[in-house]
Design a protein that fits this description.
Elements: E1 10-12, E2 17-22, E3 27-32, H1 42-55, E4 62-67, H2 90-99, E5 104-108, E6 111-113, H3 115-122, E7 125-129, E8 133-135, H4 149-157, H5 159-168, E9 172-173, E10 185-187, H6 192-202, H7 225-236, H8 241-255, H9 259-274, H10 277-297, E11 307-311, H11 315-326, E12 330-334, H12 338-357, H13 363-371, E13 373-376, E14 387-390, H14 396-409, E15 415-418, H15 425-430, E16 438-443, E17 452-457, H16 463-475, E18 479-484, H17 491-507, H18 512-522, H19 528-535, H20 537-545, H21 558-565, E19 578-580, E20 586-588, H22 590-602, H23 612-632, H24 640-649, H25 659-666, H26 668-681
Parallel strand pairs: 3-4, 4-5, 5-7, 6-8, 7-10, 11-12, 11-14, 12-13, 14-15, 15-16, 17-18
Antiparallel strand pairs: 1-2, 2-3, 8-9, 16-17, 19-20
Helix pairs in contact: 1-2, 2-3, 3-4, 4-5, 5-8, 7-8, 8-9, 10-24, 11-12, 17-23, 18-23, 21-22, 23-25
The chain binds coenzyme A.
Coenzyme A binds next to strand 6 and helix 10.
Family: Belongs to the enoyl-CoA hydratase/isomerase family.
InterPro entries: 3-OHacyl-CoA_DH_NAD-bd (IPR006176), 3HC_DH_C (IPR006108), 6-PGluconate_DH-like_C_sf (IPR008927), ClpP/crotonase-like_dom_sf (IPR029045), Enoyl-CoA_hyd/isom_CS (IPR018376), Enoyl-CoA_hydra/iso (IPR001753), NAD(P)-bd_dom_sf (IPR036291)
Subcellular location: Peroxisome
């Protein structure tokens, strides 16, 4: 046999595709090596297309498609999505693989996502290393699979399962799909390529092609479309793509469309969504997060943190302890009394128990985690700690006392961190003999759930301490953001400004419900007044009481103050901006509304009722204005970090990118005009001059 591929080794340096031919030139192995995640770029598509087209005329037994590095293809190249779609498109490559005359086998490992899974689904057989993740996460980016992945999944594993993959975007374990048409073999140990080659050799030519398009048959399965739609919409958190895709699936199912017709429709929707505002904002959020995480871990001059101390076993202390335990770190936990310590341990255990009940953890996992914790009531025990986090209540004097003790009992190289939301870390650092080792670690409540952590640089904090904390933040699976010292740092300072504008709009006659509804329809996870009720209106009230340079305006947080002064602290007293029934249900409260209206009357505020859109815009402008002020003052050095703060600290709708992205989209000129109007209408103290050109 005169096979032209004999001894050929094809290597495209730029995309890193390598072709090897083995077994008397009958088995072709295509290996993709395009770090970091083998994303399927235009160049990769073009090279693969040429390769499959040229191999089609060869006398081959089969082709094995595999990837080097940490993963099989992890998706389309998201960077390309901000430009015009580039040829060859993925459907063309996929059609070529589907039509390829001999079996194509995909050897999967790592994260087989999006276009990667679509590519694998075009193959005839799929082998996977155990624990490989398979997913169609496109909806998380505001788009849908554009190359027939959903349709092929519908055919292979049924409509219901395909909906789960494509409409929720959640990756699934390959192990769960063994012995289905999705995964033909799992590789538990040994070399994946070797085992895939042996799988190929066992294939006889009679069991060659598995054409999913010709056998497209999806009828027969009962789907409760209404409840599925409700679930999909709930999980989507305002992103439109999942429900639109579900609609498509429903149409295909009920109209019995052909594969070809259905693919055309899905491709059209994909292209339409790819250019949508939601998809652009979601891509911005994706790359902003990646950039931040990379920066946080890019430095080598960080210290090793093995053992951590936590002082305080209240709610925050428990959450913070849990973060370190979950990261597998040794923990020394200090409380003033045995009772308080036991209570903390008990709450920690209860938190884990609920995970066991839900089947997310085993009793053995719990034992392993609790083994990491050593409790004590004496500070001496903190001697081995590389880092100690103080999580006592928000009182400067209490924190100073604790820091004096920490300075005395901790080793010289230990970093001392305070978990404070507002207090002046410089004055805490000053009570120690090592102000360069003192830093703020502002966790958000509940600490083990919330992804945001502010790393607060005080006047004297050493660079390597900041770098170590940023890297630690990533290790704790959080988004660490470096900020400087000011009242509320960056996060709570912006949040306070947002709250202040909400309160002003309340005083101007916009009802509690109208404001909450406006902000939830904007996409916020909760209305701002519902949030206050949930966290306790008294918390902010007390924090403001300690604020040294309070703004002068008389109406400053008066509605909240009036609630507190009338015993309406929020959910915990069954009354706040809303009333809470015994069942926990939240209902409107005329009494609360009356309290707000009385405050407005006392202050002689002229009513100024706004549309929902105008309420949203005022709230956003307040955030943009404060964010720009924070940048001007050098509290944060990268504007995109303010978006991370809002995405991960305050439930800002991801499909809107973040408040600063929102401002940049509106444009400097428009923002300038609106801020000038507000400055004129209110005052330059509330709406100060800011450097608008930072908005980009
Ligand atoms: N397109 C372009 N770049 C991508 C990418 C994609 N689909 N997926 C990841 N990257 C880049 C990241 O931006 C990062 O770049 P950087 O090093 O310049 O910051 C790099 O690849 C590594 O990604 P990272 O997320 O840090 O690695 P990880 O091992 O933690 O996670 C993934 C890997 C693949 C699980 C994760 O990156 C991911 O979920 N990617 C998106 C997958 C996706 O949505 N695919 C469908 C696209 S339609």
């Amino acid at each position: 046999m005169n096979n032209p591929l004999c001894h050929v080794r094809y290597l495209c340096i730029e995309t890193g595709i390598q072709l090897n031919v083995t077994d008397n030139n009958t088995l072709a192995v295509i290996e993709i090596n395009s770090p970091p995640v083998n994303a399927i770029s235009q160049q990769l598509r073009a090279e693969l297309l040429i390769l499959f087209q040229s191999l089609a005329s060869q006398d081959l037994h089969s082709v094995l498609l595999t990837c080097t590095g940490r993963t099989f293809v992890a998706g389309a190249d998201i960077k390309e999505m901000d430009t015009e779609p580039l040829e060859p498109h993925l459907p063309e490559l996929i059609a070529t693989i589907v039509r390829f005359p001999k079996p194509v086998i995909a050897a999967l490992h790592g994260t087989v996502l999006g276009g990667g899974l679509e590519l694998a689904l075009a193959c005839d057989y799929r082998l996977a290393v155990s624990k490989t993740k398979l997913g169609l996460p496109e909806v998380n980016l505001g788009i849908i699979p554009g190359a027939g992945g959903t349709l092929r999944l519908m055919n292979l594993i049924g409509v219901k399962a395909a909906i789960e993959f494509a409409c929720t975007g959640k990756p699934q374990n390959a192990d769960e799909w063994l012995n289905t048409a999705l995964i033909h073999k799992l590789v538990h140990k040994g070399d994946l390529t070797e085992q895939a080659l042996s799988f190929c050799r066992q294939l006889t030519l009679t069991e060659s092609k598995q054409n999913t398009e010709a056998d497209f048959s999806i009828q027969g399965q009962y789907i409760d479309w209404d409840s599925t739609e409700k679930r999909v919409k709930r999980l989507a958190k305002g992103v439109e793509a999942p429900a639109l895709l579900l609609n498509e699936i429903k149409a295909i199912y009920s109209l019995g469309l052909s594969f070809e017709h259905a693919l055309k429709r899905q491709r059209r929707l994909f292209l339409q969504l790819r250019d949508s505002d939601q998809a652009k904002a979601l891509r911005y959020a994706f790359f902003t997060e990646k950039k931040n995480q990379k920066l946080a871990t890019s430095t080598s001059s960080t210290r090793t943190i093995n053992t951590v101390g936590v002082v305080g076993a209240g709610n925050m202390g428990v959450g913070i302890a849990r973060c370190f335990i979950d990261a597998g770190m040794d923990l020394i936990w200090i409380e003033q009394t045995e009772e308080a310590l036991l209570r903390g341990m008990d709450n920690l255990r209860k938190g884990y128990q609920s995970k066991i009940t839900k089947g997310h953890m085993t009793e053995q996992d719990l034992d392993d985690k609790m083994q990491l914790v050593k409790g004590s009531t004496v500070y001496d025990r903190l001697a081995p700690c590389d880092l100690v986090v103080e999580a006592a209540f928000e009182d400067l004097e209490v924190k100073k006392i604790i820091f004096k003790a920490l300075d005395q009992h901790c080793k010289d190289s230990a970093i001392l961190a305070t978990n404070t939301s507002y207090l002046d870390i410089n004055s805490i650092a000053k009570v120690t003999s090592r102000p360069d080792q003192v830093v703020g670690l502002h966790f958000f409540s509940p600490a083990h759930v919330m992804k945001l952590i502010e790393i607060v640089r005080a006047e004297n904090t050493a660079d390597d301490v900041i770098k170590t904390m940023l890297a630690l933040g990533v290790k704790l699976r959080k988004y660490p953001v470096e900020v400087g010292v000011c009242f509320g740092f960056a996060a709570n300072r912006m949040y306070t400004r947002y709250g202040r504008e909400i309160q002003q709009m309340l005083l101007e006659g916009n009802s509690i419900v109208a404001i909450d509804e406006a902000m939830t329809s904007f996409g916020m996870a909760m209305g701002p007044l519902t949030v206050q009720d949930l966290s306790g209106i008294d918390i902010g009230y007390q924090a403001r009481a300690k604020q040294a340079d309070k703004p002068y305006d008389l109406g400053y947080f008066r509605p909240s103050a009036s609630m507190v002064e009338n015993g309406r602290l929020g959910r915990k007293t069954q009354a706040g901006f809303y009333q809470y029934l015994a069942s926990g249900e939240k209902v409107e409260s005329q009494e609360a509304q009356l309290l707000v209206d009385n405050e407005a009357k006392k202050l002689s505020i002229i009513p100024h009722r706004l549309t929902a859109e105008a309420i949203q815009q005022r709230a956003m402008l307040a955030l943009v204005s404060e964010g720009l002020l924070i940048i001007d003052e050098g509290i944060v050095n990268d504007i995109s970090l303010l978006d991370i703060i809002w995405l991960h600290g305050y439930g800002f709708p991801r499909f809107k990118g973040g408040p600063m992205y929102w401002g940049a989209k509106l444009g400097c000129a428009d923002i300038d005009e609106k801020l000038q109007l507000l400055r004129h209408q209110y005052s330059a103290d509330i709406w100060p001059e800011v450097t608008l050109s930072n908005l980009k």
